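Review form for a predicted model. The reviewer records the input and the model, then writes brief findings.
Reviewer: anonymous (R2)
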Amino acid sequence: MWWLLITIVLVLSPVAEAAEITVVAEGSEGYPALILVRGRFMKEDIADAPRTFKAIAEAQEHGAIVFLESPGGSVGAAIEIGHTIRDHGFSTIVADNAPCTSACGLIWLAGREKYLGLRAQVGFHGAKDHETGQVSSHGNAMIGAYLYEMGVTNMTVITYLTKASPQSMVWVTPKNARSLKIEVKPLRGDLAMRTTRR
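Model under review:
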């Protein structure tokens, strides 16, 4: 039943411009809550979005699964949300056709269990220096430290995830995740269909 709820939200709701964090289904004994994170993390969200997410997370007594659909945005906000996900042991999901790029990918990596739809893609690139528009070495160092905390400890993989310019993207998919030493669980076929934007 709760998978049906997430389907309805993904199908009927327009993609949010600014970040929206909502509980789609409350948890109960044996069933984690469903939290939906959508939209871009704007500069002004750097404090509000992590605070909202933390408050929601702390209210969950049965764990949670976090569905992600976001083009990214503020790295600082994403890292804080990622830490909350990891602290609470929540799982993360990117379904087929649900975009999750840039800072959204950092959140996805925080999941205790990380799920991908069979055709899902999670995009990564280097941190952006807002003065030059190019990769920020300071920002990449911050992302690298975060990735290490999230269990991505291979320097070749960290370099891969942060090497692309802010105008481009490298992708993590169900096919290449193993070679990147990122443990990914596939969404079952029926589950993937139910959670996919149509």
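Findings: Confidence is low (pLDDT under 50) at residues 1-9, 190-198.
Further findings: The first strand starts at residue 20 and ends at 25.
Recommendation: see findings above.
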